Here is the input.
Amino acid sequence: MRFLRGILLPALLLVIGSTSAKKDEPGVNVTKFDDQVANVFYFDDSEVVLLTEPAHGKIWRSENAGQGWEYVKDIPLNQVLVVLKNPFDNNVAVALGAEFTHWITHDKGKTWREFKTDGIIARGSSPIGFHTTDSKKLIYSGGDNCREYPCLGKSWYTEDGFATEPKLLRDDRKMCIWAKSTERFQADNDKLDNRVLCIVKGKYSRLGQDFRMVISDNFFKDEEEPVMAAGRTVSGLANMAAVKNYIVAAAKAQGTDELALYVTDDSNTWHRAEFGDHKIEEDAYTILESTNYSIQVDVMTSRFSNMGVLFTSNSNGTYFTKNIEHTNRDDRGYVDFEKISNIQGIVLVNVVDNWKEVETAWTAKKIKSRISFDDGRTFESLKVGDKHLHLHSVTDLSNSGRVFSSPAPGLVMGVGNTGEYLKDYQEGDLYVSDDAGLTWKLVLQEAHKYEFGDQGSVLVAVYDEGETDEIQYSLKHGQPDTWETIKLDFKFRAYELTTIPDSTSLQFILVALRRSEGSIEHVVISLDFSELHEGKCKKGDFINWNARVDDDEKPICIMGQEQLFRRRKKDADCFVDEEFKDPVPQFKTCECTEKDYECDFNFVPEWNGEEKKCVPAGALSAPEGECKNPEDKYQGSSGWRLIPGNNCEGGVKKDKPVERHCRDTITPPASGKITQKITTFRGKQFREYYYLEHSMGTDETVVMLTSEREAHITHDHGKNWEKAIDDVVAIYPHQYFNDVVYFITPSEKVYYSTDRGREGSIHQFDAPTAPNTQMLQIMGFHPHEKSWLIWIGAEDCRPGSDGCHSTASVSTKNGKEWKFLLGFVKKCQFIWREAGRQVNEKLVFCEQYANEEPGQPLQLISSEDWFEHKETKFSDVVEFATMSEFIIVASKTEDQKSLKVDASLDGKIFADAKFPPKFNVDHQQAYTVLDSSTHSIFLHVTVNPLRDQEYGTIIKSNSNGTSYVLSINEVNRNTAGYVDFEKMQGMEGVITVNIVANREAVDGGAKKQKKTMISHNDGADWALLTPPEKDVDNKKYSCTGGKCSLHLHGYTERSDPRETYSSPTAVGLMMGVGNVGEFLGLYEEGDTFLTSDGGITWNEIKKGTYTWEYGDQGSVIVIVRKGEDTDHVFYSLDNGKNWEMHKFSDSAMRIDAITTVPSDTSLNFLLWGSDGKKIVTVNLDFTGLFDKQCNLDENDPESGDYELWSPQHPLQESDCLFGHVAQYHRKREGATCYNGRKIDHLHNIKKNCTCIRRDFECDYNFERQIDGSCKRIEGLELPDPMQVCKDDPNLKEYWDITGYRKIPISTCVGGQEMEHTSQSHPCPGHEKEYEEKHGISGFGLFMAIVIPIAAAVGIGYYVWRNWDGKFGRIRLGDAPRLNSDSPWISWPVAVISGLVAVVAAIPLLVGSLWRSISSRIGGGYGGRTYTSRSSFARGRGDYAVVDPDEGELLGEDSDEEV
Here is the structure.
């Protein structure tokens, strides 16, 4: 997002020199400089000017408007990067150095005082924040850490102008500003003098969607997070800026580039800005120069053709009204928009006339200029006589400062042309208006730079199309034939023409370049017009000029007043000569009209054509003491209010109170009913469906494809469906942006929508080839660049052709243009990820057959320039997988009999994976990457690959994915490569697995007997599930003692793998189907169980097998019978303690799945099934059961409808888990309310605990003993303990190996620090620091603690949403198609998008199984690399899919080559 782009101008090159003045003309003085100059600026209301020679960091100062210059000696050469002027104090400026030394002046640059900071200046935010009322209060931002994305840095503050060392403000900020960052914001409120607003990282995550705003009045000794929307705080803050009376903040939700704007006029109360049908996207809107009573925003409507829509807000910035469409923008965010200086209501814009052609055909823009005299309500053409005039504006800057106007009343200049459209700048001429743009005149041929002086008495212009030796000026308001010439004795090329910002001076500065004896000289030319006139203007030389008049020359009222200026007559022979005295308008009060009113608080605008109404936004509030009876009436708001600051009197009285009914003040009671809507479709089955969740809005969009190739769409969660497109073979939602979806056809034609398929938003493009039918992923998506696509198509694949092969192409314009990458590929993928190390955004990995022959080994090839240059990473690769932090590659060993694993954090350097000793598996054939959400990789290594006998060992890596320790043996796997492994979503470190309890018998061919195990400390310790004491009928179970535990059917047995145990927003809840006994029984004989405390205690809730779904973040649980016809569901509103039945149909139907939005925040559910020969969806709406939203106060979290809950380890008495006590928000039992907007369930880390044994696991080359200790494996050498120093050059010391390593997500402090019970040593080069730390006085320095909170909590929702926790897991690689007759194919494909750190970690695979079964299935359209929780396990006859990328099986499972 670029704030104030419309009024921020880039620094121009300023070049300079010297000559003598003529006495009969304005004074001319020329100063020569050694190098080009830049950053020329005046200290306001003075003739003091500063400029910089960037080549040497040399600063020059002039006290006489550029006639003489002195070098600033207080600042050494080659030190300064930039000089920033304090916009609120004319005496103050800051010179920022390249590193840690900077300078400040409090006397207009005459003297400078050095100050030092701990960090170099910030890259992503303004390095200096100035305070409006106290120039000695400054915020310095620097020390940005950009090794990880996004950049975070530190901010310091001073209250004495850096006279003393600045103090640390925040060390985790994206940006910080003073509340008083503009002169008008709360100017009279002294309580805000110390208030600072910062955007900082999330409490326990540095991912962008968790960024939050914090506010403090005491420099963050205390802080609070403001409530911004629907009674909740807002995460995902991306940027903020102060604009006149307002502070505007932008928030971005995960899974979309749409932004929500929040506006405040006091920093306490925030409102979300509403833009009607338009949405605001990241880097796609510009906050423009605004008025004192509204905000102007230009919203991009076409990203590739750079066009927008101009909006103006009401007085509190909450509702925006469209002013004009198709405004011209550039790709930097600049907008052709300028408000005429000092005059209310006059706006100049440029619009694109041929906008349709520009959007669709990439034709050149035809630009026209428009002007408004009524604050943007209406626009008209600029006129030169009867001709239309078009002017170059902000996107085509040729000078510094404002483009058209200055404080000189009513005088406007511009370069342009008459005719139909705007031509090139070099074809333009100079035009002038002296009536604020109402009429224009051509005054000079050719393009010129121009400037205003002496309140418009002097206009200066310089030829701007090449070299010249003339300077033009006019003393008659620039009228034609009044321009005179200053002739110089050398030719020069002008680069900047400037004067004092308020345009009251008679002196100007021209920066230029001249040629002298074959060389180039840089000169600054000073122009002095003060000698041209003897006298100063008298009273008779001035007129009162009305700033705005209508067609009948009558004054126009803006904000209830006419605006008049005293200005010099155009033919007066005098100067105003009131230097530094800005023109002040006079005002005359007008009668009130409808235009002087806006909608009152709690009312919203509603339009009927041109007629505007203000209607209630919800239930109204009656005055205190009124409405004791619902049938009473009271005097309430009309819905209108006079715009604050409007000075009109009399006339229309739209804000007069009106009589209202008291019944309108009462929120309608809940109906108490659940509603349903059944819809039937043609076809045998649903092939796939996806939720396009709108995290910023209320619609609940689902796209769906039937077996008849018909794509349907609903925006209200299945209540109303409409057919979108025919002949669709696959639907590809964008993996990272929920609003975007692609519909693939059998041909090159692709349909797409960037607005969730809403009406009018479906467009099309042609892909470079038809989609491949080789079971390869067709489309790949970039995590950050929404419009970057990879297409895997097919060439020479027509019947009879024997050269059919795949090709990869890339588009950076959403399919509008394509570039060929490689042929004969199996997979291509963007590698950039938001989490982890930074890599080039263009980095792509492709698997390509060697020598472009399909029978040859696969090579892993990388490129950062679309394969103009490429590098072979591996020559015989099986598969690669991208995780949240890691890139994992499985390749064949040299003997071709086994596989090996390599891991990388940056895509460039790969390291071999070291498996645990004694873990020797002959002919390793398959790995399943399970999870990498906790700074380590869980990897399942297949031990027994025989069909129906598959099992293996789960091993866990260190933080760089290279060294593994054993977690648990004999973990069950199926033939397709899926593993019974699942992490609980939304909580740290809770994992369930199913193990093969009779391993030896299975190796001999026996049937598997499985048991369920659970870990509460991220896989370090495992135990059987504790069974409930009694079943749902209050009967005891038949088993006893050690042969009695609870077992749950896992991932490998689910007919619908989307049925995960848990939800990321229903904290502590898990459900499963299983049995109590010695071993896991048959699925069909199972019952349904639930836990509400994270797996510690379980209850049987229903006899039989049910499928389930969590709604409203767990406040509603719905279950439906699995595997038999039914006409009802059961639901619970109290975490499964009590269940009610709801009948949804008069006849029974077969239900295959139940779903809701991926965030589980909706009160709507969808049943998917069949009713005879038709397929059906059933919408269930539970909204009617609730009439109020739950109240949550983060500052007093247990005062409302919530309580704080802390999970714990079942074998510990304390609440410490992973070294800390975590507190989660959970709805209080008995609270009859709905959760609504998504809650950040993790409230706080209450404390860090002392370390105990459970915070550690066995180190590499050590193994766990029966007593829980870790013992070195005999015969194996210990790793080099000094290696940690080599890995981290900043590390000061290392410790001898103890056999223990801390679990990566543990934050424990002190206690049994089992990895530090040995001798410590200094790292090479840090001996001195080591001695200081461990000397007599170094008593506590070693206690510097870094607290890495688990990704599964801190970024839980983000991870889960991108990894499809509920709607199936995505496999990487090839996979068999199982049970093709089932509407829900049992092998879904799921990608671990590398942004993700899997919270719900269900096994994901990357397999190479396709060759073993392809002969049975035939070809089909490929899979996809995305994971929305709505990912659907697809099976579509010839159009089967395989999804390579989300958690993955890396390996072979055939006998062909082993």
The helical segments are 355-361, 999-1003, 1283-1287, 1327-1334, 1351-1354, 1356-1362, 1410-1417. Residues 1228 and 1399 are 25 Å apart (CA to CA). Confidence is low (pLDDT under 50) at residues 1-22, 1335-1420, 1422-1458.
